[in-house]
């Protein structure tokens, strides 16, 4: 693979120029589709939800489409079971939750076959009605990062042209851990809630008008209604909101900086 054969420079330019141009065009298209999403996205997890009251110009919905559990060599598929009522105009983000077993003897193999199975199931969510973007929710362990990176690279290649690919990210990844850099996603949503031991240090950091260090995390915020934040939100960023109960109109009215 490490060939020493010299290729004329002009030939290299001729070969790669069209490829680079296509890459730039695709990225511009993806960003345009990402910008077209509403400014506020409600997460709809595995429970019955009636969101027909939403204004589709202001609100979109990121719904849990499936949970994929990686265990040994297996991928255990759990589809959404709960109903989701929406107006036909509401833009949807299909969320795939990936969970890796931590029990000794059940840890995921992280094999090529396992990755291909995940890819196939995630790509299928793009055919669901009104889905305009895909999001991956994976609390990835350090030992699983390269597997996840390769999964995202392969997924980006298989998604329909122009479809945004987003991911959730632990807030610590956005503040102190730079492993997210160069991932082929349009947005890494920093989860500023349920942060465990990182809760107070990260909230103090953000409430002191500091920003996320990772550029991918500077497009959005992920918050929960039951965890108020005393920080300055940049209104140009998209807001993803989690509720620990089925959404009601009065809950939506509580969301910070309604646009």
**Uncertain regions: pLDDT < 50 for 5+ in a row?**
1-26
State which percent range the strand residues make up.
Answer: 25-35%
SSE topology string: HEEEEEEHEHEHEHEEH
Question: How is the biggest beta sheet arranged?
Answer: 9 strands, mixed
Instruction: Say how many strands there are.
Output: 11
DSSP helix count? 6
Fraction of helical residues: 25-40%
Structural class by SSE content: alpha/beta
What does this 3D model show about the protein?
It is a single chain. 28% of the residues lie in helices and 25% in strands. It is an alpha/beta fold and 259 residues long. The strands form 2 sheets. Strands 1, 3, 4, 6, 7, 8, 9, 10 and 11 form a 9-stranded mixed beta sheet that branches. The protein has a two-stranded parallel ribbon with strand order 2-5. Strand 3 and strand 4 form a beta hairpin. Helix 2 crosses helix 3. The radius of gyration is 20 Å and the shape is globular. It starts with 8 loop residues before the first helix and ends in a 7-residue tail after the last helix.
């Amino acid at each position: 693979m490490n060939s020493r054969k010299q290729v004329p420079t002009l030939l290299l330019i001729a070969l790669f120029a069209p490829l680079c141009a296509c890459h730039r065009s695709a990225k511009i298209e993806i960003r345009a589709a990402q910008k077209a999403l509403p400014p506020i996205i409600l997460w709809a997890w595995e429970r019955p939800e009636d969101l027909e009251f939403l204004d589709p110009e202001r609100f979109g919905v990121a719904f849990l489409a499936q949970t994929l559990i990686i265990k040994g060599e297996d991928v255990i598929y759990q589809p959404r079971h709960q109903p989701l009522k929406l107006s036909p105009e509401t833009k949807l983000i299909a969320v795939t939750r990936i969970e890796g077993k931590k029990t000794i003897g059940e840890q995921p193999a992280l094999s090529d076959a396992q990755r291909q199975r995940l890819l196939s199931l995630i790509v299928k969510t793009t055919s669901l009605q009104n889905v305009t973007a895909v999001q991956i929710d994976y609390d990835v362990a350090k030992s699983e990062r390269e597997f996840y990176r390769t999964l995202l690279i392969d997924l980006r290649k298989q998604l329909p042209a122009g479809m945004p690919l987003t991911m959730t990210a632990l807030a610590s990844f956005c503040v102190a851990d730079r492993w997210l850099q160069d991932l082929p996603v349009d947005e890494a949503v920093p989860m500023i809630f349920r942060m465990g031991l990182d809760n107070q240090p990260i909230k103090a950091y953000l409430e002191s008008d500091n920003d996320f260090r990772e550029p991918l995390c500077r497009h959005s915020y992920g918050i929960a209604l039951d965890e108020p934040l005393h920080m300055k939100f940049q209104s140009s960023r998209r807001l993803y909101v989690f509720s620990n109960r089925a959404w009601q109109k009065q809950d939506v009215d509580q969301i910070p900086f309604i646009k």
